[in-house]
Amino acid sequence: MKNWIRIAGLAMAAGLVACSPASAGSKAPAPVAAAAPAVHPLSGLAVVPLTVTTAAGPHRFAVEVAATMAEQEKGLMFRTAMGADEGMIFPYMPPQRTAFWMKNTVLPLDIVFVGADHKVLNIAADAVPYDLTPLPSAGPVSGVLELNAGRAKELGIQPGDLVEW
Questions:
Q1: What is the 3 state secondary structure string of the chain?
Q2: Which one of 38, 72, 97, 120 is most buried, by most CB atoms within 10 A?
Q3: What is the pTM of this model?
Q4: What is the pLDDT of residue 33?
């Protein structure tokens, strides 16, 4: 039994040496720093790539992710500018019916409702700033994409187009 304990101890010691850092004389590759996720300078929300594929082809956006209930309640309220290829995505898991309004929202928006299959269900185009009228989805959504007003029409985004984020 003592021999087995000695053999096990030697094996563990050999394993520790094998897993230790390389000696100073060897050229180990430098560690790769993980890229920090992009963060929007105004909202502090994560920014992710999003692609809408229309009949004319794919169009890429950089969108803020409003993931929590508090982030979704604020959305783009009080924002006074947004780039042409920027937007905000409101993900829903599980998919659900929803409606958006423009309370305290300065920018006119296109509100793109994205179904569970990641295809556009319906679009509330040119939503009017500050309007409290609910703008409903046509069914359960896995996400809602907000873009500058007129952008969906300009790019030819329509129901059935694929949205990936």
A1: CHHHHHHHHHHHHHHHHHHCCCCCCCCCCCCCCCCCCCECCCCCCEEEEEEEEECCEEEEEEEEECCCHHHHHHCCCCCCCCCCCEEEEEEEEEEECCEECCCCCCCCEEEEEEECCCEEEEEEEEECCCCCCCEECCCCEEEEEEEECCHHHHHCCCCCCEEEC
A2: 120
A3: 0.78
A4: 55
29, HSE (Cβ side, Cα atoms, 13 Å) = 3
Give the confidence band of 100 by pLDDT, cuts at 50, 70, 90.
very high
Which amino acid would we find at residue 129?
P
- For residue 73, CA distances in Å to 46, 60, 76, 95, 160 come to 16, 25, 9, 17, 27
CATH of domain 37-164: 2.60.120.1140
Residue pLDDT, tens place only, 4-61: 334 334 333 333 333 333 334 444 455 555 566 699 999 999 999 999 999 999 999 9
What is the average pLDDT score of the chain?
85
CB 59 within 8 A of CB 155: yes
Domain boundaries, the chain: 37-164
